[in-house]
Amino acid sequence: MQVNLRHIHKRFGAVHANNDINLTFHAGRIVGILGENGAGKSTLMKILSGFQPVDSGEIWIDNRPVAYTGPQAAIRNGIGMLQQDPLDVPAFTVLENFIYGGGDGVFLPRKTAARQLREISQRFGFELDPDMPISQLSIGQRQQMEIVRLLTLGVKLLILDEPTTGISAEQKQVLFDALRELASKDGLTVLLVSHKLEDVIALCHEVAVLRAGRLVGTRNMPATNAQLVTMMFGQQLAPQTRKPLDLVHAPDALVLENVNIRGSRVHIENLSLRQKAGEVIGLAGLDGSGQELMLRACVGLQKTAGGRVRLKSEDVTGQSYRAFLAKGVAFGAAGRLEEGLVEGLTLTEHVALATENATLIDWTAAHKHCEAQIKLYDVRGRPESMIEQLSGGNQQRVLMALMPPSPILLALEQPTRGLDVDSARWIWEQLLERRDRGAAILFSSPDLDELVAYSDRILVFYAGQFFEIPDAGRTTIDEIGRLIGGHFEVQHA
Ligand SMILES: Nc1ncnc2c1ncn2[C@@H]1O[C@H](COP(=O)(O)OP(=O)(O)OP(=O)(O)O)[C@@H](O)[C@H]1O
Ligand SMILES: [Mg+2]
C-alpha cells in the first residue's frame, strides 16, 4: 500500500500545527517521524489515522483520494494508530478487550479474535494470555495487544507514537523485531514517532522531520545522531559538561535508615541510603517496581512504616508533604497536569500560588514576576495563557520556573518525559545549576541513557527489591536493562 499526503493543513487557533505537509509512505518501509516538541507530529498522525479532521489537503491511498470520518474509516482503509493511553475497560480480560476494541468502534468476531490473538502472539513472541484481566498487563503487553488487534483488522500502515516509553528492554527488542518482520515479510508501512534517536537509528529506513508545523526534510537512513539533531533543530547542540563536585566531603542532604514502605502493589524493606549535597541519584525500574514509592517517601507524600528519614541532620520521619516543602524539598510529579500544574489556571496564577503567601496576592507583581519567569525559562506562552494550552515541553519549563532556586533536595519523577532532545538538555542544565549550588537530586526515569548520563549512583528497583550501582559512570545500558528485568543474580556471579 502506498499512502500519499498532499498539502495537509491543520490549525488550532493561531497555531498552524500542520502547514502544507506533503509526504509519501511506501510499503515495507519503517519511517521515523521526528521533530521538536510542538512540531506537529502527533497532529499529522491523528489526521492520518482519522482521530482528527483535516482543515484542508488530501490523503491518497494507492493513487486514489480517500476521505475520512473517523478512526473506524481509517482502519477500513488500512491505516491504524497505536493509542498511547488505550481506552480499555479494566474489568475485561485480554480477549474481551481485544474483541471490543481500542476506542475505534470496531468489533471483532470472538472466534477470529481468539485464533488471531494466539497465532499472531506466537509468531512474534508476545506474552499475551487471553484470560488475563487487562488491569494486570504491563504497558508493553498492552501495546502488544493493540498491535495484534490492528493487524487482525487488516491494517497495512501502522502508526506508533512514542512506543518505547515505559516498556522493558526485552519488550522493546520483541517490538522492534516484530516491526522489522512486518515491514520486510508482510510489506507493512510503519510510522514511528520518537524523540529517542537511538531507536530511530536502530529501526528506521528513512525519516521525515517536522519543525513548527512544516516538513523540513526527509532522508534515507543510515544517519548519525548528530545529523538527525541538525535536521531537527537546524544546528548541533553544544556538548553538555558537568562540573565535578567533591561528594566525599559534602554534607548529607537526605538520609534513609532502614526504611520500610508499604505500597498497594509492592513493599520496600530495609532501605538505607545516604545522599550527599550535590549528589545525583537515578532511580530505575519498570512502572510500579518501587522507585515511585521511594521517591514519594522522600518528600513526605508516601508514609514510611519503620525506619528514619532525615533531611540534613533533622529527623523528618512521618512529617507531612507541606513540612518537607517548608524544609527545602522540591518535588516534580510525572503527571504534570494531574499533580504539578492546575488545568484552567493561567501562568500568572501558577506563579502567584507558588509564592509563599498565597492568601494576599499582589496581582500586578505576580504578573510582572510571571513575565520575568517566562523570559528566564524561555516559555512559549503568555502570562494569561492557560496551562493546558502549552505543549508538553513548555509545561515542563513552567514547572522548572516554579521550583525553588536552591532546594536541599530535588525529587523528580521522569523530569524529561516526552521532551525533545533540546528541551531535555535544557531541563538538565537547570537541574545541574541547582546541583552546583548544593541541591541533591533524586530522579526516576524510564530512559536508561538519561540515567547513565546524569546519575552519580543508580538504584534499580524490581518488585520492591533494589540493587545499587555505586558508580553510574562505569555501568552500561545493557547492565541496567538486565537489572530492571530482575536479573540481580547476574551481578553476584
Ligand atoms: N487539541 C489542541 N488544541 C489546541 N492546540 C493544539 C491541540 N493539539 C495540538 N495543539 C498545538 O499544535 C501544535 C502541534 O502539536 P503536536 O501535538 O502535533 O506536536 P508534537 O510534534 O506531537 O509535539 P510533542 O513532541 O511534544 O508530542 C502545538 O503547538 C500544540 O500546542
Ligand atoms: Mg506528540
Low-confidence stretches: none
Strand content: 15-25%
Number of helices: 18
- Strands of the widest sheet, in order across it, are 6-7-8-3-9-10
Largest sheet: 6 strands, mixed
CATH superfamily of the largest domain: P-loop containing nucleotide triphosphate hydrolases
Topology:
Elements: E1 3-12, E2 15-25, E3 30-35, H1 41-48, E4 56-61, E5 64-66, H2 71-76, E6 79-82, H3 94-100, H4 110-124, H5 139-152, E7 157-161, H6 169-184, E8 189-193, H7 197-203, E9 206-211, E10 214-220, H8 225-233, E11 252-262, E12 267-276, E13 280-284, H9 291-297, E14 308-311, E15 314-315, H10 321-326, E16 329-332, H11 336-340, H12 347-354, H13 363-376, H14 392-402, E17 409-413, H15 421-436, E18 440-444, H16 448-454, E19 457-462, E20 465-469, H17 477-484, H18 489-492
Helix pairs in contact: 3-4, 4-5, 12-13, 14-15
Magnesium ion binds at residues 41-42.
Would you give an account of this structure?
The protein has 493 residues and is of the alpha/beta class. The chain has two domains: 3-233, P-loop containing nucleotide triphosphate hydrolases (Rossmann fold), CATH 3.40.50.300; 252-328 and 404-492, 3-Layer(aba) Sandwich (Rossmann fold), CATH 3.40.50.300. The chain is 34% helix and 24% strand. It is built from 18 helices and 20 strands. It has a six-stranded mixed beta sheet, with helices on both faces. Strands 16-17-18-13-19-20 form a six-stranded mixed beta sheet, sandwiched between helices. A four-stranded antiparallel beta sheet has the order 2-1-4-5, covered by helices on one side. The longest helix has 16 residues, at 169-184. The protein is globular and about 70 Å long. The mean pLDDT is 89. The structure holds adenosine-5'-triphosphate and magnesium ion. Magnesium ion (MG) is lined by residues 41-42.
